[in-house]
Amino acid sequence: MKHFQEAMIELYQALCHLVRVVRNILTYFNFKIMNNTLKWLSAIGVEYYCHEHPTQLKVRNNTELTEKPQVKLKSTKETAFNMNDKVHENITLSRSLADKANNIEELKESLLNFNGCELKKFATNTVFGDGNLEAKIMLIGEAPGSTEDLKGIPFYGESGNLLDNMLHAIGISRKNNAYITNTVFWRPPANRQPTFEEVDICRPFVEKHIALINPKLIILVGSTAATSLLGKNSGITKIRQEYYFYTNKYLSAPIQTTAIFHPAYLLRQPMQKRTSWYDLLKIKEYVVNNRLLA
Hints:
It catalyses: Hydrolyzes single-stranded DNA or mismatched double-stranded DNA and polynucleotides, releasing free uracil. It holds the Pfam family UDG. This is Type-4 uracil-DNA glycosylase. Residues 128-281 form the Uracil-DNA glycosylase-like domain. By secondary structure, this protein is an alpha/beta fold. It has one domain (79-289): Uracil-DNA glycosylase-like domain (Uracil-DNA Glycosylase, subunit E, 3-Layer(aba) Sandwich). It is built from 12 helices and 6 strands. A 6-stranded mixed beta sheet has the order 1-3-2-4-6-5, sandwiched between helices. The longest helix has 42 residues, at 2-43. It starts with a helix and ends in a 5-residue tail after the last helix.
């Protein structure tokens, strides 16, 4: 009987220990899940939807909460007209500012003072550009992500590291012989693609940006940059197979242009890295033959 009681006590102690171990494991994984969830929510820009922006929200008093507001409804046509009219006004303003910029510093200053793009209201930083201003190679991406928005530098973070490694493999670096910017200069909420209107509003700045750098080769990074600047309806998979001549009103001569997959896409689809490597080899051949690294 005594041995039986001792055995039961040992069993009870073992079960208690097991419960503690299981509880610690669950606590650890719950913490990791919660932590990863918070990181994911931050990465997709969820703060945009819950952040009380001072220009968007105001404190309501009790009267405002109890009284029903008198809302005058506008027709769909009137709303659409007003929206298109505002977009056109902002495009006209951005074109005027781009026309007046005589150098990179003036263009950047104009962009910092420009409030015609709604993306700027919720962005942390204006992401203008990065790299060698004397470079003969210019890369243009889609839009800043969460890390780029915080740092104010295009292609910063995981996708930026991948892009730097891709360029380094063919002898190109943003520090020495490349310059990088985007088609829009502020992070879209939740890392969504920029709208046609947002791209069009930023387009004059991008065009003048290209003219001031005046590269010999433009590499469009991703579908948005490729389709918007080349005016193509095809996807990036088809566009990247050829070379094009890009021009705009500020350029005296067209610029040789090609496109590659966006590094963020390659992180999601690593099997496409082989295809991307072939694209890089073609770029390297063109760069070497035209002495663009000198």
